[in-house]
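Exercise 7. Given the encoded structure of a 146-residue chain, write a plausible sequence.
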């Protein structure tokens, strides 16, 4: 007998008796893994689904029209319409720029609401001026001449 310390992990190849075992992951895969996967049939009568970028133009158009609405106001309404169309296309998988469509939609709503409030304020101011300056007894500031 030798006084050499024993290897706690078992014999090594030069000590003899080393027989490597096949690891568990190298075993044969189960029978169901050997079958080929069924090929997916395209929906819609054999046509492939639309590309995920086919309708990205809607989100971009929504954002542009909403931002132009800062100057023209009425294009923000078209930005809202295209924003809703863009979100619908993104939900169906026909577009992948949901954020752009959402930004155009939000900006369009904000500009439209601000435009409506500005028109209400404008008409109220015009009505007040007509009320103050019209009739038999106009206000002094309405009749002053330079």
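Solution.
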């Amino acid at each position: 007998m030798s006084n050499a310390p024993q290897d706690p992990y078992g014999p090594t190849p030069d000590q003899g008796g080393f027989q490597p075992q096949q690891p568990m992951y190298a075993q044969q895969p189960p029978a169901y893994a050997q079958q080929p996967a069924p090929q997916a049939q395209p929906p819609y009568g054999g046509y492939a689904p639309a590309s995920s970028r086919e309708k990205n133009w809607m989100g971009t158009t929504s954002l542009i029209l909403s931002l132009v609405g800062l100057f023209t106001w009425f294009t923000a309404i078209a930005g809202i319409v295209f924003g809703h169309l863009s979100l619908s296309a993104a939900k169906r998988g026909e577009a992948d720029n949901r954020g752009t469509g959402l930004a155009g939609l939000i900006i369009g709503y904000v500009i439209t609401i601000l435009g409506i409030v500005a028109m209400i304020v404008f008409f109220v101011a015009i009505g007040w001026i007509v009320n103050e300056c019209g009739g038999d007894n106009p206000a002094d500031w309405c009749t002053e001449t330079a």
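Remark. Helices lie at 56-72, 75-92, 98-133, 140-143. Students should compare their own answers with the one above.
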